[in-house]
Design brief:
The protein is mostly helical and 84 residues long. It has 4 helices and no strands.
C-alpha cells in the first residue's frame, strides 16, 4: 500500500515544477487555481505527470473534482491502492 505522504510528496514536487514555488509552500487545503495559480495548461501537464508516475488514468470528470491539493492526494491514493 502506498502511503499518502509519499503520494503527497510526489504531487508537491510536480506542482512546484509547474508553479515555480517551493514544495513546502504547497499546503493541503490550498486551492489549486485560486491560491496556487494552476492554469489549464499546468493542469493538463500535471495530469500527464500523475498518470505516468502512478500508472493510472484520470478521467476528465474526475479532474473536475480536484479543487485542493488534498483532493488530488486522496484521489491518487484511492486509485493507486485499489490497484494493489
Amino acid at each position: 500500500m502506498v502511503q499518502n505522504s509519499e503520494i503527497e510528496t510526489k504531487i508537491k514536487s510536480a506542482l512546484s515544477g509547474f508553479l515555480k514555488i517551493e514544495p513546502s509552500k504547497i499546503k493541503g487545503n490550498a486551492l489549486l487555481r485560486d491560491e496556487l495559480g494552476l492554469d489549464s495548461m499546468d493542469t493538463i501537464e500535471l495530469v500527464f505527470e500523475l498518470e505516468d508516475n502512478f500508472n493510472i488514468q484520470i478521467s476528465d470528470d474526475d479532474l473536475l473534482e480536484f479543487k485542493t491539493m488534498d483532493d488530488v492526494v486522496e484521489y491518487i491514493a484511492k486509485r493507486v491502492n485499489e490497484n494493489k
